[in-house]
Each structure stands twice: as structure tokens, then as C-alpha cells.
Amino acid sequence: MIETPSTPPTLDRVEAVARAAHAGQTDKAGRPYAEHLQAVAEGVRARGGDQDQIAAAWLHDAVEDGRLTARWLDEAPLTRRTKDIVLAVTKRPGEPPEAYAARILDTPGALLVKEADLAHNADPARLAVLDGATRKRLAEKYARMRALLGLG
What we know:
- Helix 2 (33-46) runs antiparallel to helix 3 (51-59) and helix 2 (33-46) packs across helix 7.
- The protein is globular, with a radius of gyration of 15 Å.
- 61% of the residues lie in helices and 0% in strands.
- By secondary structure, it is mainly alpha-helical.
- It is built from nine helices and no strands.
- The longest helix is centred in the last third of the chain and has 17 residues, at 132-148.
């Protein structure tokens, strides 16, 4: 997908790869998944994130959702820091939330990406279109993760 193995791709190229990887995928509200990726990338940028963090924001769910493989990520011409952030925010099957949060906190740059992800996931307008039980479950899940990450 990314052609030049020796230089990190531009953010436009990372965005294109992420959009292609998530093509056809929708979120819980039935919206194109790329809208979430864009919101997280914009949230990282608005919070002062750098190029590595913005690239990681575009790719933050790609491995977790099985859209790109861990091998693809390992071989991609991304910076080591971008790869580390993507891996840090990738939940592992059966992983306790405490271990997930600890990995994020231990990885430089990952907290900002997860903060932007949580902010978009917990957006009241986004949650409002879900059924009551799902909305309540997700709101509690996001609040717990914010607490584990020290985000208040």
C-alpha cells in the first residue's frame, strides 16, 4: 500500500491507506468508519499532536479491527514512534482494561491519540443515535478508561 520503504509517507498518504483499509466499514451508528478516523486525527492535531501522532490517529484501529495486519505495520515505512503508538492503542483480545491503559501510559505519544479517540467515541451527539442500553454501556466504558488514563 505504501510504496517507498525508506521514507515515512506523508500524512495524506497515511490517510489514504487508512481510508482504503477501512473502506466499507461502519461505526456502531452506521456511519462510515473513516469519519471516526478523521475526527481522531483532527482531535490529535487540535491537541497539539505531531506528525507521528496524527499518522497513528489515522491508523489507530486498523490492526485491532483486522483491516491491516501487525506484519503490515511492522514492514510499513512509518516511524518507529508511529508504529509504537498504533500498537499501544491496539486492544488485545481478553486484555484487562488496566493492562491496556498501562501500555498506553508507558508509550510516549499514545495518551494524546487515545484521548482524542475517547473524546470522539464519547461525543454525546454520536452516542445519542444509539439505543439506550448501548449508549449507557459505552459511556461507562469510556468514562472508566478515561479514569484509568488519568484524564478525569
